[in-house]
Design brief:
The protein is mostly beta strands and 278 residues long. The protein has a single domain (2-276), classed as Jelly Rolls, CATH 2.60.120.10. It has 2 helices and 24 strands. It has a 7-stranded mixed β-sheet, with no helix packed on it. A 7-stranded antiparallel β-sheet has the order 2-21-18-23-15-14-13. The relative contact order is 0.17.
């Protein structure tokens, strides 16, 4: 297992960041590595973001030093979405089979979490997002057809998309974690526009299903002090509560979003008019 720790950046400091500083603080360039669990521990709401890619062997989730517990989920909950081939996750011996785009909510208190692929030639890619937890909730496997599906956007504004709300109060119980997947319709490139912030909770994005030679221009920063990050396929973004989080791609793509903080309401947003962006 590999883990990196990221500190919090004040918005006043971010105004002076150049490209390298922005990427170092907010972009996670390597999420998936073969036969590894790769984690980033962020002091932004103590989110843990990562990937497990079990190609030739099972991978067990342990508790590295930044977690400060005997086992990873002693005081945490975890959301997992598979974006690779078929795989399975064992939770204290109970096995859950995950096809691509299936989601597993894993509750506080599970001791042994083991990731495996069903086919070594087409391994699973498990994207992980963990938040602190104060209570125990049942672990639940959620398939795309069981998620809340919300249609948003318009072809005329290039942001027609389907939102799949997996870990959501209407689908399964969680402490603070909310997690889902957004698929842009063919010919659409913009996500989350008009922009918004939600200072009650922070968010992380994983962009995927993007061709290797294409990129996402992810918009971030205060509405009056915007910045951008150029993001490749299967890279992740940390988005603090004070920052906008929207983007446009050079080609069609999908992304996984996940949030943690004080409010689990998906519609709790402070909307920013497009004309107010600077």
């Amino acid at each position: 297992m590999k883990i990196e720790v990221r500190q919090v950046s004040h918005p006043d400091a971010v105004r002076a960041y150049g490209t390298d500083d922005l990427r170092r603080h907010f972009l996670i360039e390597s999420v998936f590595e073969t036969d590894e669990i790769v984690l980033t521990y962020s002091h932004i709401d103590r989110l843990v973001i990562g990937g497990a890619l079990p190609a030739t062997k099972p991978l067990k989730l342990s508790a590295p030093t930044p977690i400060g517990q005997e086992f990873f989920l002693a005081q945490r909950e975890l959301g997992v979405i598979n974006i690779g081939g078929k795989g399975r996750i064992s939770l204290d011996g109970a096995v859950h089979e995950l096809a691509t785009r299936d989601c597993l909510y894993i509750g506080k208190g599970i001791v042994d979490v083991v990731f495996e692929s069903a086919d070594k030639s087409n391994p699973a890619k498990f994207y992980l997002l963990s938040t602190p937890a104060h209570a125990v909730h049942l672990s639940v496997l959620i398939k795309p057809e069981q998620a809340n599906q919300v249609q948003l956007g318009d072809q005329l504004t290039s942001n027609k998309r389907t939102i799949y709300q997996y870990i959501h109060p209407d689908v399964c119980e969680s402490c603070q974690l909310v997690m889902g997947l957004t698929q842009l319709a063919p010919g659409n490139m913009w996500n989350t526009m008009p922009s918004h912030t939600h200072d009650r909770r922070s968010e992380a994005y994983l962009y995927f299903d993007l061709a290797a030679d294409q990129r996402i221009f992810h918009m971030m920063g205060e509405p009056s002090e915007t910045r951008h990050l150029v993001v490749a396929n299967e890279q992740a973004i940390l988005s603090p509560g004070w920052s906008i989080h929207s983007g446009v791609g050079t080609a069609n793509y999908a992304f996984i979003w996940a949030m943690g903080g004080d409010n689990k309401s998906f519609t709790d947003m402070d909307m920013i008019p497009i004309s107010a962006l600077r």
